Amino acid sequence: MKPWLTALPVYNEAQYVDEVLENVLKFTDQVLVVDDGSTDGTQERLDAWASRLPDSVSVVHHPENRGYGAALQTVFSYAIENNFEGVVTLDCDGQHQPCGIPEFIAAGRHADIVSGSRYLKEFEGDDAPPQERMFINRRITSDINRRLGFSLTDAFCGFKAYRTEALRELKITDDGYAMPLQLWVEAAAAGLHVTELPVPLIYLDLERSFGGSLDHAETRLNYYNQVLDDAIDSACREGRFRKRNGENDHVNSPCGEKGKRAAS
């Protein structure tokens, strides 16, 4: 089995990609970048890296923009098909510090999923998060915890580590920004061991778009709620929520009326 892979989903990050890759390569030997249909010159920059460092940098190009979730599905498939022990994912917009990669790998040897949290600990120099993003994050995180039995503090951080054996348990189909919600449902259904690591709060682009109507906070919250509902309903219909550690069928199960989200 190969050691851990570090992977970055990328879409139109020409201004950050060279610096981020330079820093990532200080802390990992194998990097995969999934270019999700970039049109701003990112593709050419990535190809130059892969040409210059073919033993360290691999690039997969999506011919057109398919979405954040689609890029991570490509990452997961690559890690499984190439027999890596696990994969660390981080964003390519400068919000995640590559120096944290070794800590995520170390934690990933004792957990199925290690998820970064920007709210678990305060770091000196933390940025103030956009209020609407923090509100939505806290609302959805609370709902996930109540319905799925987790104790998360940050449901949306993209800095994560996954053991490859755990990835085999996940049925991820959501192509968009709501993919993390399906991820948590799948992790709960499979009874995976999840832990969090604190990461600094860094916001370099407060105007980043979620795409079309999702830039509207209420629309985005409603969309996230619907994705969460649908993911839970699907896993329940398929009977995929497992009993954990000898628990009875109803403990921590979101199936049935008691698992429905609280009214807005």
Topology:
Elements lengths: L4 E6 L6 H8 L6 E6 L5 H11 L4 E6 L5 H14 L4 E4 L11 H8 L4 E5 L13 H18 L11 E4 H4 L11 H11 L4 E5 L18 H21 L27
Parallel strand pairs: 1-2, 1-4, 2-3, 5-7
Antiparallel strand pairs: 4-6, 5-6
Helix pairs in contact: 5-8, 7-8
Describe the structure.
The protein is α/β, with parallel strands linked by helices and 264 residues long. The protein has one domain: Spore Coat Polysaccharide Biosynthesis Protein SpsA, Chain A, CATH 3.90.550.10. It has helices at 17-24, 42-52, 68-81, 101-108, 131-148, 164-167, 179-189, 217-237; strands spanning 5-10, 31-36, 57-62, 86-89, 113-117, 160-163, 194-198. A 7-stranded mixed β-sheet has the order 3-2-1-4-6-5-7, sandwiched between helices. Helix 7 (179-189) runs parallel beside helix 8. The longest helix has 21 residues, at 217-237. 41% of the residues are buried.
